[in-house]
Design goal:
This protein is mainly β and 484 residues long. The chain is built from three helices and 36 strands. The strands form ten sheets. Strands 25, 27, 28, 29, 30, 32 and 33 form a seven-stranded mixed beta sheet that branches. Strands 13, 15, 17, 19 and 20 form a five-stranded antiparallel beta sheet that branches. A four-stranded antiparallel beta sheet has the order 1-3-6-5. A hairpin with a 2-residue loop joins strand 29 (358-362) and strand 30 (365-374).
């Protein structure tokens, strides 16, 4: 039995060591036909590989490699020493033609076990001229890219913006996603004077506003551009007709080579700035969205929802006493104009006091809470609650229906429940909430109050002088008695 447990422990240890070792692949998925690019395989785990094998496909020329690099890190946690090894293999490749190609998986042997990487897809485009920036990030007014070659100011083909919308035909209340992206084949040093659309005619909410703009490569018209998302919004049209989204504008600071002639001195490269910064203003074209009205014939339970939703209704407690507070909670979730949903209509029994509905929105759901207080006892049924929305995909109204919710209300010990401090649970005049007024209002005084004439003062009055004379006589009498 001990041998079995020992063997199982060894197998588990080997399996764990093997599971912790993997091959990662890092490569640019979009390259130009005349561009050299790197592919790097990284093996990380407790043990170093004893062998590694990879060959590029025939669609790529091996320019150089592999270059092998190793590193080891050691950590000690609670007295336990852990060693992690990282080995990298880097190759430089050159495409032979344009198209989309697969680079095969690499294999390695670690402690007698063979592991494999994933294969990767590479898109090769003609591109005219290769994109200059590669992957870069711009934060504030500083960039990490080099200046472009050439002396001409950038044109509209070198740098531009696009505002794309998820749909150009919608109905009132239907959700539209808008994304503003910047594309460039130059080197950007920073941005100025950003102006975003006002989205007149839409309810709008900004969902992405990155402070650190990350660029990645995209293929636009068989050309490679560095692209980044500047902003994204959720739009909900509030009126029917053709709505025009006004342009967005941005000033980009671009580095170009300076045309100033050299004096021929060997010190020119040290004392003359080889590049200059130009300001290029870019803007998006106006975007038009055709918005239709929601068809007639909406059910009475229609709450303004456009999209696809589901509903859940429940009571916080299914048994109460009279004058106790309860809550009916209805949650509507799904995809659509969640933020603009109206509260479902709920019919409460006549003897129930119902207060203002409380709403909360969390991502893709909206919750409605209906506080109430039953004033009579008995067995009641709330619901079923109906809620209708318009499904723009099918062009039909859909009605959601909850289950009936039974509620048992028993008679309380007293007509009004007593709370600490002698207070009584009552309803405030505007019926917005339930408050404990026992500590706020004092009891009515039942004894006869003492009144005084306006402008009356005790000092100097006849009563004051009478009391003073009596005190003087008493003091004299005490003095005489003491002397005798």
């Amino acid at each position: 039995m001990r041998r079995i447990f020992t063997a199982l422990a060894a197998l588990l240890a080997c399996a764990q060591a093997f599971a912790q070792t993997s091959i990662g692949v890092s490569v640019q998925n979009l390259v130009a036909a005349d561009e050299q690019f790197n592919i790097t395989f990284t093996i990380e785990g407790e043990h170093k590989p004893s062998s590694f094998d990879w060959e590029p496909s025939a669609d790529f020329q091996l320019v150089w490699g592999p270059q092998k690099g190793t590193s080891t890190s050691i950590s000690i946690v609670n007295g336990k020493k852990t060693q992690t090894s990282q080995t990298t293999y880097t190759y430089v490749l050159m495409p032979r033609s344009t198209g989309t190609f697969q680079l095969p998986a690499a294999t390695a042997t670690v402690k007698g076990e063979t592991i494999r990487s994933r294969s990767v897809s590479i898109q090769v485009v003609s591109n005219g001229a290769s994109a200059q920036g590669g992957n870069q990030s711009v934060q504030g007014n500083s960039g990490n890219s080099q200046a472009v070659s050439g002396t001409q100011a950038p044109t509209g083909e070198d740098i531009f913006m696009r505002l794309s919308v998820s749909k150009t035909r919608a109905v009132v209340g239907e959700t539209i996603n808008a994304t503003l992206k910047l594309y460039h084949r130059v080197n950007i040093a920073g941005f100025e004077d950003a102006r975003f659309p006002s989205f007149n005619g839409f309810w709008s909410q900004e969902v992405q506003a990155p402070s650190n703009i990350e660029f990645h490569r995209e293929n636009v018209g068989d050309r490679i551009y560095d692209a980044a998302v500047l902003r994204s919004w959720t739009l909900i049209p509030q009126q029917a007709g053709e709505i025009t989204i006004d342009p967005a504008e941005l000033v980009c600071l671009v580095n170009v080579r300076d045309r100033r002639s050299s004096s021929g001195s060997i010190f020119d490269s040290f004392f003359q700035d080889e590049y200059r910064t130009v300001r290029k203003r870019v803007s998006t074209p106006a975007v038009k969205v055709n918005v239709s009205r929601i068809p007639a014939g909406a059910p009475a339970s229609f709450g303004g929802g456009v999209g696809t939703f589901r509903m859940n209704a429940s009571l916080t407690r299914d048994s109460l006493r009279t004058h106790d507070a309860g809550t009916l909670r209805i949650t509507v979730s799904g995809k659509g104009n969640i933020s603009l949903l109206e509260a479902p209509k709920v019919d409460f029994p006549p003897d129930f006091e119902v207060y203002d509905i409380k709403t909360s929105t969390d991502g893709g759901s909206k919750t409605f809470e209906y506080p109430f207080i039953p004033r009579s006892h008995g067995d009641f049924v709330l619901g079923p609650v109906e809620y209708s929305y318009y499904d723009a995909g099918s062009g039909k109204f859909v009605t959601l229906r909850s289950e009936a919710m039974p509620l048992k209300v028993s008679k309380s010990a007293e007509s009004a429940q007593q709370v600490s401090g002698g207070g009584q649970l009552v309803v405030n005049p505007n019926r917005k909430d339930v408050r404990d007024l026992g500590n706020d209002i004092r009891y009515i005084v039942t004894r006869q109050p003492a009144f005084a004439r306006k402008g009356y003062f005790f000092v100097g009055s006849g009563l004051f002088w009478l009391i003073a004379a009596l005190l003087a006589l008493a003091a004299a009498a005490v003095y005489l008695v003491v002397r005798k």
